[in-house]
């Protein structure tokens, strides 16, 4: 029934509006005709009364286009509010709002009316006859493109004519023996004519082709610029017909609020460090995309971290089972008690493998540089831009600075030479959750030099958040295996292997550095394989992860060597392999 009602309304209201206009025209013609026939004043009054009754029955239709005054941009989607001034007559009025975004969520309409008015009905419409009027810049570019295309055609015609002349000359380069002029004289005249005329033709062809190439290049640039200028503006077909009952004649600003899907934003960061003794500056930016077909000109802008979801049902967690995989064994066999096995697998990166034993509870220290007012609710963070903004409807993204903070950070060098023989400078931010950061790409700068990009993970679970500021090439590190002829030994049915490594570090910077070095011993998953630490020096060993952490303070120009070794013991007929998970 609802569908039938919507379909009926979709054709009835435009038909009603058109019928009303036709009736008005007919009545005005009748009145003019009556006056010309000098019919009695009473009949004229009756005709005028009939016109007023028609106006009263069908109401007054006003066509308006809203101007966006306020927008709240979500991670996906946006809630916009637009206004337009309207003047209503007493009684039934029809206000048609045109050029609305095509992807409006029709369940989100909210209409703001003046006092002594009642909203009787809202009817969404589509105007498929609405023309796509190009902008002034697009019109100029199109005119220039047509002008160039015409010149290209004329040049092509001249080139074709000259090439035809060349063909005719080539076809008639013959010496005739029956002429009064001797063949030698004919040949001299032909070659003279050929050299002169062909040179003129070739020069003309060269110049014409050069002009044509320039125009073709210019038109290609115009086409690219047109593609740049093309927006979704004026492509909107959506309209909204409001039926409003007014108790008196009045004027007010009518407001419309709705949600569109063709807008949103992505978080970006600039992270800047001047040196290892200065605070860290974090610039929080929003990459805004807006393709609604309506420009948001001088609008109050809010940016929200909320992500609207169509499915608001709570998730249901089902049991997750893990078991040993044995090749050639069926699923039911592997789930018998004989084969059951409990396993725990933690996915970590090289830095997360270690938790600092001296975690502090002090709050993150930062100094606000106001760009937007930030409000933190239970479900999202809302940034209210302090300045009025203009966001164009276009294909390319636009960038806004949402927040700036100077954050107190500690700096340390970090290396995992087994994975990468480079030394990274880390900025450690404590209690980073207080900074209202969400996951996003970050550009790194150190001492005004661009370092590269990283990705901030807002779901990082530790209190201290490490931000990599890139590789310091001035610190040289090498990890080398120490060869031992007696590294493999056999005892009865077992075999023992010794693995030894040296980590060599040289500090070529001009200051003393604090460096943490991370390496590891293998962890046995088989009771027949044993791992024994032989020497790790002053390193701290973590049995859960197998990692070893050394803390070093290395003076400028100095070199340090870290030595560690371990022993593997396993049956001599067993083949072993290493794997990372």
What does this entry look like structurally?
- By secondary structure, the protein is α+β, with helices and mostly antiparallel strands.
- Among the domains are: 1-58; 137-175 and 183-229; 476-571, Immunoglobulin-like, CATH 2.60.40.
- It is built from 5 helices and 28 strands.
- Strands 2, 3, 5, 8, 9, 10, 11, 12, 13, 14, 15, 18 and 19 form a 13-stranded mixed beta sheet that branches. It has a 6-stranded mixed beta sheet with strand order 20-17-16-24-27-26, with no helix packed on it. Strands 21, 22, 23, 25 and 28 form a 5-stranded antiparallel beta sheet that branches.
- A hairpin with a 2-residue loop joins strand 22 and strand 23 (494-507).
- It starts with a helix and ends in a 10-residue tail after the last strand.
Task: State the gist of this model.
24% of the residues lie in helices and 41% in strands. It has 581 residues and is α+β, with helices and mostly antiparallel strands. The strands form four sheets. Strands 2, 3, 5, 8, 9, 10, 11, 12, 13, 14, 15, 18 and 19 form a 13-stranded mixed beta sheet that branches. A six-stranded mixed beta sheet has the order 20-17-16-24-27-26, with no helix packed on it.
């Amino acid at each position: 029934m609802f569908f039938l009602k919507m379909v009926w309304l979709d054709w009835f209201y435009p038909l009603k509006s058109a019928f009303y206009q036709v009736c008005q025209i007919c009545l005005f013609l009748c009145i003019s005709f009556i006056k010309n026939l000098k019919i009695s004043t009473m009949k004229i009054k009756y005709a005028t009364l009939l016109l007023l009754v028609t106006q009263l029955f069908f109401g007054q239709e006003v066509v308006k286009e809203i101007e966006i005054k306020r927008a709240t941009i979500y991670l996906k989607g946006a809630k916009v509010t637009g206004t337009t001034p309207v003047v209503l007559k007493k009684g039934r009025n029809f206000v048609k709002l045109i050029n609305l975004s095509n992807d409006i969520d029709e369940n989100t309409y909210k209409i703001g009316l003046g006092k002594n008015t009642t909203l009787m009905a809202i009817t969404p419409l589509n105007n498929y006859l609405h023309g796509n009027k190009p902008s002034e810049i697009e019109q100029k570019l199109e005119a220039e493109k047509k002008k160039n295309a015409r010149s290209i055609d004329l040049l092509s015609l001249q080139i074709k004519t000259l090439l035809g002349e060349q063909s005719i000359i080539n076809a008639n380069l013959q010496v005739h023996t029956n002429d009064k002029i001797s063949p030698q004289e004919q040949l001299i005249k032909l070659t003279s004519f050929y050299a002169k005329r062909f040179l003129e033709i070739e020069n003309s062809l060269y110049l014409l082709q050069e002009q044509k190439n320039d125009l073709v290049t210019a038109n290609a640039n115009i086409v690219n610029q047109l593609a740049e200028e093309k927006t979704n503006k004026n492509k909107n077909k959506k309209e909204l017909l409001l039926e409003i009952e007014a108790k008196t004649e009045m004027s007010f600003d009518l407001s419309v609020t709705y949600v569109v899907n063709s807008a949103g934003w992505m978080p970006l960061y600039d992270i800047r460090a001047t040196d290892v003794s200065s605070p860290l500056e974090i610039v929080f930016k929003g990459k805004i995309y807006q393709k609604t077909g309506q420009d948001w000109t001088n609008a109050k802008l809010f940016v929200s971290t909320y992500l609207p979801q169509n499915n608001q049902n709570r998730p249901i967690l089902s049991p997750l089972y893990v078991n040993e995989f044995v090749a050639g064994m069926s699923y039911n066999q592997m789930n018998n008690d004989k084969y059951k096995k409990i396993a725990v697998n933690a996915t970590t990166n090289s830095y997360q493998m270690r938790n600092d034993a001296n975690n502090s509870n002090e709050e993150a220290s930062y100094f606000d540089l106001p760009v937007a007012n930030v409000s933190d609710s239970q479900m999202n963070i809302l940034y209210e831009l302090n300045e009025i903004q203009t966001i164009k409807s276009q294909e390319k993204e636009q960038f806004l600075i949402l927040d700036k903070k100077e954050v107190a950070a500690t700096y340390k060098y970090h290396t995992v030479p087994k994975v990468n023989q480079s030394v990274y400078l880390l900025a450690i931010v404590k209690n980073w959750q207080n900074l209202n950061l969400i996951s996003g790409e970050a550009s790194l700068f150190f001492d005004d030099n661009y370092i590269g990009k990283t990705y901030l993970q807002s779901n990082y679970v530790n209190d201290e958040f490490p931000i990599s500021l890139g590789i310091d090439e001035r610190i040289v590190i090498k990890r080398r295996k120490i060869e031992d002829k007696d590294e493999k030994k056999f005892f009865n049915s077992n075999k023992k292997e010794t693995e030894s490594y040296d980590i060599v570090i040289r500090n070529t910077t001009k200051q003393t550095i604090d460096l943490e070095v991370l390496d590891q011993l293998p962890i046995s998953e088989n009771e027949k394989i044993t791992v024994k630490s032989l020497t790790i020096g002053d390193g701290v060993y973590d049995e859960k992860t197998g990692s070893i952490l050394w803390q070093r303070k290395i003076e400028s120009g100095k070199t340090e060597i870290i030595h560690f070794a371990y022993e593997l013991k396993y049956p001599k007929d067993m083949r072993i392999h290493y794997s990372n998970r």
